[in-house]
Amino acid sequence: MNRAAIILPDELVQEIDDLVGEDGRSAFLTELARREIQRLRLMQLLSRPGAGWKLEEHPELHQGAAAWVSNLRADDERVDQDH
Questions:
Q1: 41 and 58 within one domain
Q2: What pLDDT shows up at residue 83?
Q3: In angstroms, rounded to a whole number, what is the distance separating the alpha carbons of residues 55 and 46?
């Protein structure tokens, strides 16, 4: 483990303490930093050319994801009724 001196506004430290207590500061900030690093890495990955999947490779979604899910549910209901 390493120690890192960081400067935070007093009101932010107070809000953190109100939520997790003084003893919970390090764990709180560690988890927050891990989540933010994961989010930023994901954003970097998704911003690369060709990242993700292409809509033309998924014709089942041509009417949108909500319509696709509705169709799946309707199909499931028909199967349940047939049994």
A1: no
A2: 67
A3: 15
